Amino acid sequence: MYGWIFRTLPGPIWLRTVLFLLLIAAAVAALFHWVFPWLSDFINLNAPTIGALSPVSVQGQPETDFPLTWASR
Amino acid sequence: MGSRNRARSTSFPLFMTQVIGEILLTVGAVALLFVVWELGWTTVQANASQRAAIDSFAQDFQGNLAPGPAGPSAASSYGDPASTPLPSTEGEVFGVVYIPRFGQNYEPRPMVQGTGQRELDTLGLGHYESTAMPGEVGNFVLAGHRQTHGATLDAIHTLVPGDKIYVQTTAGYYSYVYRNFAIVLPSQSEVLAPVPMHVGTAPEDRYLTLTTCNPRFGASERFIAYAVFDSWQPLDAGPPQEIADQVRSAMGGE
After folding, report:
1. Which residue of B38, B199, B216, B226 is the best one to mutate when testing the A interface, meaning the one whose CB has the most A CBs within 10 A?
2. Interface pTM (ipTM) of the complex?
3. Which CATH topology does B43-250 take?
4. A3/B contact by beta carbon, under 8 A
5. What is the pLDDT of residues B174-223, one digit of tens each?
6. A29 touches chain B (CB under 8 A)
7. Number of cross-chain residue pairs from A and B with Cβ atoms under 8 Å apart
8. Would an 8 Å CB–CB cutoff place A59 in contact with chain B?
9. Where are the domains of chain A?
10. Of B253, B102, B79, which is closest to residue B166 (Cα–Cα)?
């Protein structure tokens, strides 16, 4: 796969190396910008609020905005 | 040209093994990158946006930045705390929180209205909208991340009873004293009651409650820190001694 990509890129070895690194950088940027933020919604690592599992309110108003309800967004 | 011929002459099982191996290595690298993003990059981003939030709060902040008079008697002579105007919109930064116990490297954190994902992920400590405002009789509750997105309350377990927690708003400085902690289930919203854990009881005291996740890298429980109101001082009295330097640098003074 990577070998095929490297062979398909145009130019001499040094140019191919630069292009290859640019492709990897673009892939990492896409992961950081779009994929990981989306993925983190499904990973229950950080939910600091109370009432996230059973939205009972103390003062009669239902909590509607807590981080883990991706269904509501 | 040699490599192309070699690739073509490679047997099919060997070719598939190579492809599957590369895919597995890629999946592993992406998983490691995700850890870097979640535990590192989100904090880099959140620290930058929290600093910007404090800067914009500081721009509108009109207050004497010289430290206030020393001693508890001076601080307790201002009477009942003035109330902070209710933020008009969710996501509005309406104060700054200082927790000296978390150390010199712990920057003051913006306090924002609301506990939605946007508020907590980018802006620091979120105020549960249904709870009291700073200094009010009742329970003033803030949520913050233990890990990721600035890890605003990562060191919450290091609080020692008697530690001060300071809240600065456009009305003044509210000082609370940390008293005790509790570890509860995420569903135990009694924590947010005007008298924590006593739903239906009319409050007489002023509480500050911090909620974050527990254990440190998990979210199966919540770590709750309870503090009680200690004193208040208006803006023109200047910031409390203990945080005077931090306030000055956060508010753009020198």
Report:
1. B38
2. 0.72
3. Sortase; Chain: A; (2.40.260)
4. yes
5. 999 999 999 999 888 899 999 999 988 899 999 999 999 988 888 888 99
6. no
7. 115
8. yes
9. 1-42
10. B102
